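so the lab meeting is tmrw and i was supposed to have these ready like two days ago... anyway. pasting both below. for each one the top line is the aa sequence and the line under it is the structure tokens. i havent really looked at them closely yet so no promises
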Amino acid sequence: MSDPRGPDHLVLDDWITPREASELIGVTPNQVRHLARQGTVEAQKFGHAWMINRASAQAYAASDRRPGPKPWESSSSD
């Protein structure tokens, strides 16, 4: 059975607060807001409150986010 609200209906269960996202990701709420401004995590404003897409935050949390050079980046000077 299809959703009578239509395909564009937003389900609030799919959205979490920046504080909840910060706990999920392991960073501060300010860092979550920075990630949202960069477009790294999906965010949407509901009234006066910004919310973070739960799946987007979970994907970011699962990504390789270690600081420093990546294994494929060569730092040797020939």
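ok protien two:
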Amino acid sequence: MSTDSQSTDTITITVEGMTCGGCASKVDKALVATEGITSTSIDVPTGAVTISLDGTVASDDLVFDIDEAVTSVGYRVVS
């Protein structure tokens, strides 16, 4: 966990199809490898994925990148 004072923006999405920690790990790795994303917090039972952004990429560009990253590992963003 970072302790610096710089604030980061977060967004929360819902991902369909995750059933275990291994699923969450795949989604996390795909998202963190995406430019502009620094970390994720994933709740497998609800599918909620909170994504921390570093502010270097426009949010409009990230919508496509996030969907592409999640889809590339076999899951689907539903909201």
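from a quick look at the 2nd one: Confidence is low (pLDDT under 50) at residues 1-5. Helices lie at 21-32, 59-72. will dig more after coffe
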